[in-house]
């Protein structure tokens, strides 16, 4: 199915104008299914989930679908902006309107999360020139993968605007037949162009919201359909990248913008699928007597590791359910494996201490040579 985004956006914007006149005070928190204490991240997350669920394209037989989706957009727009949210919390939707509900209606859906439906634009019309795809690595921390996060990317791109004058466009080769004399014809190939309005480029900024989904795998791609094309400059977490210095396309379709999740190496945890691995060094004394350590997890909660038995070097302790949530099913959670390493004391024991150790451990002197296993 081909989604015509322009038509869709137009409908979305105008419908919102219309309902502004009619509706009074909707409960935006209820629409987003959140308590009034919800954090910005929770608001974004809930919006994303509900937008997928309530999208009119997915609820074609429900006459209320459009309305519900617009309520959701309005709720998100009010609550995702800290100033608007404050006004809304105090004076409700009426308050927002009184504040002169600024003209600059920014459409939350189009700037959000890229392609909701995982579809790609149809390939039937390949003769339409298409701008290049832009692919960017997006470096995220393991903390972000564990907790989820939203990253704002400001995309600065030149946008074509009509201006005075005209230019040649849609140029193509056409065959022409010329009569050279009686009964003599010659075929000629000619370039034929149309006249189009002249165009100048105006720089526009747009904020794209990228969700780092809980449990997202390394290499995961997040596409933003039709955001590729003339994107020339991008700011990620306030770092500016120059992406494409080529000529912007004026005709045809824009390419796509794709972000590829790159999970950075963590100083304490290593990730293998849904499981986490870490190393723990303990003293020889703790190895023999037992120990009780707490280690901070990726969201700050403490994991305790407690042993009373003797622990040998290389022992691997499994903490069930302390790994990463699985990407497509967050209720499935991996495990944490802690490999123990023992910090032996340095130096030399006195004769007395040696005797004490001998009495204490009471081990026969023996050794074994082996290879591998
Ligand atoms: C744990 O130690 C082993 C051996 O030194 C090392 O190969 C591994 O990368 C370490 N794992 C982590 C999570 O630091
Ligand atoms: C985790 O343990 C540390 C040290 O034992 C403590 O300072 C910290 O408050 C604990 N954190 C939580 C979230 O309980």
UniProtKB/TrEMBL annotation:
Residues 83-102 are annotated as: Disordered. The keyword Signal applies. PROSITE patterns: DNAJ_1 (PS00636), DNAJ_2 (PS50076). GO terms for molecular function: misfolded protein binding; unfolded protein binding. GO terms for biological process: protein folding. Residues 27-92 form the J domain. Keywords: Signal. PANTHER family: DNAJ HOMOLOG SUBFAMILY B MEMBER 11. CDD domains: DnaJ, DnaJ_C. This is J domain-containing protein. InterPro entries: DnaJ-B11-like, DnaJ_C, DnaJ_domain, DnaJ_domain_CS, HSP40/DnaJ_pept-bd, J_dom_sf. GO terms for cellular component: endoplasmic reticulum. It comes from the Eukaryota.
């Amino acid at each position: 199915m081909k989604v015509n985004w322009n038509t869709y956006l137009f409908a979305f914007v105008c419908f919102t104008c219309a309902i502004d006149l009619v509706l009074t005070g909707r409960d935006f928190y209820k629409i987003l299914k959140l308590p009034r204490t919800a954090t910005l991240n929770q608001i974004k997350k809930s919006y994303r989930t509900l937008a997928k669920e309530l999208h009119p394209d997915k609820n074609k037989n429900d006459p209320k679908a459009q309305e519900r989706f617009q309520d959701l957009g309005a709720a998100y727009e009010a609550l995702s902006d800290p100033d608007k949210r404050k006004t809304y919390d105090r004076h409700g939707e009426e308050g927002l309107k009184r504040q002169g509900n600024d003209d600059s209606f920014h459409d939350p859906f189009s700037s959000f999360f890229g392609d909701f439906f995982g579809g790609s634009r149809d390939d039937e019309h390949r003769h339409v020139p298409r701008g290049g795809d832009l692919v960017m690595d997006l470096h995220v921390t393991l903390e972000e993968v564990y907790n989820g996060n939203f990253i704002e990317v400001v995309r600065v791109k030149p946008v074509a605007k009509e201006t005075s004058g005209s230019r040649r466009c849609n140029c193509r080769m056409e065959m022409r037949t010329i009569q050279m004399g009686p009964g003599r014809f010659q075929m000629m190939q000619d370039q034929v162009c149309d006249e189009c309005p002249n165009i100048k480029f105006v720089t526009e900024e747009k904020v794209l919201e990228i969700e780092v989904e809980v449990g997202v795998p390394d290499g995961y791609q997040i596409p933003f359909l039709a955001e590729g094309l003339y994107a020339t400059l991008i700011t990620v977490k306030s770092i500016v990248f120059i992406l494409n210095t080529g000529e912007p396309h004026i005709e045809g379709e824009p390419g796509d913008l794709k972000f590829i999740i790159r999970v950075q190496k963590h100083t304490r945890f290593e990730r293998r699928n849904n499981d986490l691995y870490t190393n723990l060094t303990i003293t020889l004394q703790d190895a023999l007597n037992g120990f009780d350590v707490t280690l901070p997890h990726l969201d700050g909660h403490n994991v305790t590791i407690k042993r009373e038995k003797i622990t040998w070097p290389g022992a691997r302790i499994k903490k069930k359910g302390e790994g990463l949530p699985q990407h497509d099913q967050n209720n499935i959670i991996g495990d944490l494996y802690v490999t123990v390493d023992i910090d032996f004391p340095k130096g030399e024991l006195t004769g007395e201490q040696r005797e004490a150790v001998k009495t204490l451990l009471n081990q026969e002197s023996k050794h074994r040579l082996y290879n591998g296993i």
